[in-house]
Fold:
Amino acid sequence: MYTLLDSCLDRIDIFEFLKHVEDGLNDHYDIKMLTYLMLVRLAHLCPSAVLQRKFYFLFYVSKTHSCLLFP
Structure:
């Protein structure tokens, strides 16, 4: 998925792609960390699309951080 962002961002439906990113944020810890990197990359490439779905992403970020702080 990270390679898709570099090679053919203009050919993908970014909102469909963001749905898959959300799925990655709800996966196992190692997948979540890779997805966070991808989310940072997306925020640089297409910030308006990420901002439109910010509440979904903030939910997963807060859920992950609360698990890390309070095991």
